[in-house]
Amino acid sequence: MGNVVTIARKEFVDLLSNRMVIIVLIAFLIYVVSNVYLFYAVLNGIKPGQLMFYENTGVAADNSVFFTLSFYGTIMGIIIGCSSISSERMGKALNTLVVKPVYRDTIINGKLLGSLAFLSIAILFFIAVFTSGFLLLCGNALAPFLLDYFYRLPFVFLFIIVYTFVFLSISILISLLVRDQAFAMILSTLTVYITKIMYLPDIANNLNNIFPGYGLNKLCVDLSPESTLWWQVQPKFMNTSVGALDAFLSILPEFGKLLLYIIIALSLSYIVFVWRDIS
Amino acid sequence: MRAVYEVARQEFVRVLTYPLVPLAFLIVLIIAYLNGAGDVQILQYMSAHEDGDALLKGFGQSWGSTSMICTIMAVFLGATSIPYERWNNSINVLLTKPLYRRDFIIGKFAGLSGFMLLFNTFTLLLIGLLMIVFFRGPQSNFEFAWRFAAYIIVMSLSCSLVIALNMLFGMISKNILVVTSASITYVFFDWIWYNDRIIYGLSILTPMNLYHNIIAPFAEPFNPMFNTIVPFNQWFYAAIPFIAILIIEMSILLLAGIHLFSKDDSI
Questions:
Q1: pTM, full prediction
Q2: Cβ contacts (< 8 Å) between B178 and chain A: which residues?
Q3: In chain A, which end has fewer C-beta atoms inside a 10 angstrom radius, N or C?
């Protein structure tokens, strides 16, 4: 356990000082701030439109956090997942680590723990930015619904972690499978593209038209994490007529599905890392 | 000129063996087949209930997924072009030759743009042919040829702009992973995030928005480039300002890249 924690701590520090990760997180921070402003602007009629779940400003604010950090935040998962393997591979540190008297599963456990800790801190930071922005800019409108906002927030945090961790674990798997780390990053971006298009009519409906009767349309929609988030999770999770816990319990099947993706990707990563020659 | 041609040819051949190409090819093949075989009923419905050639509208059905994969390919080919040369040290050999650095960059850009032109032509030809096989031929061959050629040129111009931008990333940083992550950020910024929330009116200058505005320079009727009830001239004149911005932007990025690369002492 001591070795795992040591590797996890090293992983955390490495990610914190990694230029690639910093570039991406700064870019995403700008996007987060722009979304806070959009919430304020729409709420105050500066920009046209209506907030989703506007009847409860607290839930509307939760929805803004939830959707921005999960739907658009997959970039965090990709970059952290790729960086955790690529920086070691490019610097040849992985070879050194592998010849030390530690089990390979200790290395991967440490890396996963460090990456998860870093991802959690990054998400907590972005949630703090959202919350401060909401309180500063929309405090009056949010005040009657503040409890609703804060009750749902821990569940939102939990869901965002799991959602982004799906992409993180897929990126780790790809980085372990592919020797060229720049190409591994490109492939990880392609996974986002695939989850994005597979539920669109171009793919899902057309597939169903070619092979009717197998429910392929629904299968594509069900398999894509993005459509799961968009069509299945959001309406139930942000249901303003139920409490935070009930809303979270209602999305447990989808939550479980995302966990299953993580388990599959991580199991394959373990197999690849333990059995393959790493260089 | 000869040097530019040689660099472009070498870059074109290098890209042919890049592992992303067969993968993108496979994705395009799947999209084309699904679009051709699966979209027949919708095209028949359009043909019966809407004005204009339904075959051309069929291109509009899959333009998002097709354009995105072609752009992703252009992004990463552009971004990794120079860092890969640095990585395997072939750039040192090249720069000892009697070759202007300017010609080196222009050659690389021309090679990649030529490749994207070929890839886009192949992609759209495949989609068009499969629609013709499963649905029917065009109502007017002349009209179809014009619009089809325009679509290929517009998509390739957009890819060239993306290549120029991402080549610039490759000149700013020497670390291939930093360049790749900057390119990933670009893909998210332009194709996944709502960038007008960050840069407001300037978002019109991003490659994806320019491309979208060229395809649809006015909102009604929908997708005028693929809609034969809009005369080709009307679409073209409306798209000219956006095409001009795209070409100017591409030239500026390319010049900036040449300037940076020529002034860099530690290649």
A1: 0.92
A2: 19-20, 23
A3: N
Q: Which of B154, B151, B156, B181 is nearest to B166 (CA)?
A: B181
CB B24 within 8 Å of CB B73 = yes
The CA distance from B27 to A14, in Å, is: 35
Q: Write down the H helix ranges in A44-180.
A: 57-71, 74-90, 93-99, 104-142, 146-177
User: For the purposes of burial, counting CB atoms within 10 Å of the CB of B257, is it exposed (0-12), middle (13-18) or buried (19 or more)?
Assistant: buried
Give pLDDT tens digits for B215-228: 999 988 888 899 99
Question: Of A43, A28, A54, nearest to A125 (Cα)?
Answer: A28
Computed over every residue of chain A, the mean pLDDT equals 91
Report CA torsion sign: A40, A46, A49, A53: positive
With an 8 Å Cβ cutoff, are B178 and A30 in contact? no
3-state helix, strand, coil in chain A (%, to 5): 85, 0, 15
B193–A24 CB contact, under 8 Å: no
Q: Do A20 and B31 touch (CB under 8 A)?
A: no
Cα of B4 to nearest chain A Cα, Å: 27
Q: How far apart are CA A195 and CA A206, in angstroms?
A: 16
Per-residue pLDDT reduced to its tens digit, B15-42? 998 888 999 999 999 999 999 999 888 8
- State whether B185 and A210 contact (CB < 8 Å): no
**Spatial contact of B103 and B2, defined as CB atoms under 8 Å apart:** no
Assess B172–A contact: CB distance below 8 Å, yes or no: no
Please report, for chain B, the start and end positions of each structural domain, with discontinuous segments joined by +: 2-263
This complex has an ipTM of 0.91
CA distance B55 to B135: 8
What one-letter code names the amino acid at A219? L
**How do residues B179-215 score in pLDDT, each as one tens digit?**
999 999 999 999 999 999 899 899 999 999 999 999 9
CB count in 10 Å sphere of residue A41: 16
Residue found by looking up tokens 């002492």 in the block: B265
